[in-house]
Amino acid sequence: MELKSKSEIDILREANLIVADILSELEAMVEPGVTTNKLNQRAAELTKKHGAKSAFLGYPAPSPGVESFPGLICASLNDAIVHGIPNDVPLKEGDILSVDYGCEHKGFFGDSARTIPVGNISEETQRLLDVTKASLDAAIEQCHVGNRIGDISNAVQTVVEKAGFGVVREFVGHGIGRNMHEPPHVPNFGRQGQGRVLKPGLVIAIEPMVTIGSFETKLLEDGWTAVTRDGSLAAHFEHSVAITADGPIVLSRP
């Protein structure tokens, strides 16, 4: 677990503000008829404009025989939880799209995600998005020196399960810094008072993944896209957060 200095956290803030800016531009593009490939192409243009480098494009595959990740964004639609590959299928009214984006800037990484409604969505789908965002906010409130990873994990699980939704187990948050993924793992479920103690300089990406139905998942044939096993909708929100003596700094929040 590599703790970061104030100057390193400042650079991580710069990287994450680039991520936030690009995600906001992509979110403004989301509407019925738009394709996730178009979003991916715009992400490429914006990444170049910012002088950054994609964190996802060419990322090594999780299993043998699978090609490295082909997109700058992960575009996960409806029942897709994470790691969806951009394509030419037009978005439809009532869809929800998780857009996850990361970049490298001055040797440090930024990472954030948000789930975006496509046009008008149902009340239950909106509740899914609201609860997922609320669980992330609750997790960030636990990001104080002396607390533990389990306090973060339990905060997510408590909010989600109280709402009657499912918390994905197979995919978790992570440390972030000079590498996209660093220790420690940051699960979205767990017990208070368990896990590593939060120390000043720790920077983590917290990313609740929440389903309307069962938390069980399966992997599509592309070797990347994780979907809900029961076909229920899923939402995903993520922020990179620095633990400091003065409290949490949400690096990817403008």
Overview of the structural elements:
By secondary structure, this protein is of the alpha+beta class. It has one domain (6-250): Creatine Amidinohydrolase (Alpha-Beta Complex), CATH 3.90.230.10. The chain is 28% helix and 24% strand. The protein has helices at 6-29, 36-49, 123-141, 149-162, and strands at 53-54, 73-77, 80-82, 96-105, 108-117, 166-167, 173-175, 182-186, 203-206, 209-211, 217-219, 226-228, 234-236, 239-242, 249-250. The strands form four sheets. It has a five-stranded antiparallel sheet with strand order 8-7-9-14-15. A hairpin with a 6-residue loop joins strand 11 (217-219) and strand 12 (226-228). Helix 1 packs antiparallel against helix 2 (36-49) and helix 3 (123-141) packs antiparallel against helix 4. The longest helix is centred in the N-terminal third of the chain and has 24 residues, at 6-29. The radius of gyration is 17 Å and the shape is globular. 48% of the residues are buried. The model has no long low-confidence stretch (mean pLDDT 97).
Name the descriptors.
single chain, 254 residues, alpha+beta, Creatine Amidinohydrolase
SSE series: HHEEEEEHHEEEEEEEEEE
Total helix count? 4
Beta-strand portion reads 15-25%
Mean pLDDT: 97
Q: How many separate domains?
A: 1
Which overall shape is indicated by the principal axes computed on the Cα atoms?
globular
